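User: My instructor asked us to take a sequence, write out its structure as tokens, and then describe one feature of it. I'm not sure where to start. Here is the sequence I was given:
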Amino acid sequence: MFVLEHEDQELYDRVQEQNLNRQYELLSNCIEIGLKKGPVAFDKYMLWALNHVAVANISQFGGRFRQEPIYVGDHRPPHFHGVGDWMDRFISTVQENWYIWTPTELAAYGLWRLNWIHPFIEGNGRTARAVCYYLLCVRSGALLPGTKILPERIRENRIGYEDALKAADLAWDDGHLDFTTMEAYLAELVEAQLEDAGSACA
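Assistant: Let's start with the prediction itself. The structure tokens for your sequence are:
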């Protein structure tokens, strides 16, 4: 069961908004578990669950890695036959660098790399933003305060987001792992979130 955007835009938008609310509730649970278990809690099952909730009733293939090609503007994600391997490498890189990279570095890598792989048919951006916030919070040791959290701020600042994705893509194409532009972009948004939270408490 699913609704198509072009058939009923109002219903589609309402379902999508409710999905985002449910995804945040699930994400909060995941962060709580991650704070207890550390890097081993970050696995493909969590990613499948976050994607499934994000696209429930608007996509039939939520929570499963894609088995077909997908195109994102000028970016050509890897062939679907390699998605499983790329995701294993992605998760392994996060776990292996858990105590080496800073919270914003880990979050920046997660946000860029998941978008680069584009492992799902639908909801890749929503899942990547949730993963980004998960990594930031768990690596920081707490669910960060704020009424407007990082995923929402990213959605509202798309130009910086897209520019940072392109910068990391270009570096990768040249044979380098460089997501410093994404890290700087996220650091500014996180600072704004914490400042707003502090003002609300004052």
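For the description part of your assignment, you could build on this observation: Residues 9-37 form the longest helix (29 residues). Try explaining in your own words what that tells you about the chain.
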